[in-house]
Amino acid sequence: MEQPGVREPAPEALQLVQDLVNTVDLEAGAEELRTPAELTRWVRGRGLVGRGLDEDALRDVLALREALREVCLAHTGTEVPPATRERLAGLLERGPLLLEVDAEGAARIRPQPGLTGAAELVAHTAAAVARATVDGTWPRLKACASDTCRWVYYDRSPAGRSRWCTMAICGSRAKMRTYRKNKGAATG
Questions:
Q1: Which stretch of DSSP H or E encloses residue 110?
Q2: Rounded CA gap, 31 and 25, in Å?
Q3: What is the DSSP string of 54-70?
Q4: Which of 26, 36, 112, 129 sits at a 20 to 30 Å CA gap from 102?
């Protein structure tokens, strides 16, 4: 998926989350997941089975997407609203994960086999977040601080304090608004 500015996509473990949240372009109003058929194509395009994706599943996936956007926004310094945390917890309960240990003792988290509908995507998303939490990359998946954008990007800056998807667009707009506000206050 094309990223704003010159940003590289998130590491592989987080690409599913980044791609899901960015299925809607808030600024342009472009939505990729309008119907169960579009959701099915999108899910299968990521190598998942994609069975049972009906209207209810679409509603749940869109709720998951927006809850994840709020969590990614929290990575820029805000808080996840309690209602969002509750909604996300309810969705995550339906996507169970398993911990597998192989013959060498290595452990990995994976979705429970046989999941269908939204539960399949929820479980794969949860597994991606768990892997990214372990490897320390999860807090760097952020939503642009611009209210009109909220595009999810991966912050590769050394300090990890990026707030906008691209400084050239959203960052410049924010700085210009602040400048105009401060200039107006100084002359008023």
A1: strand 107-111
A2: 7
A3: -HHHHHHHHHHHHHHHH
A4: 129
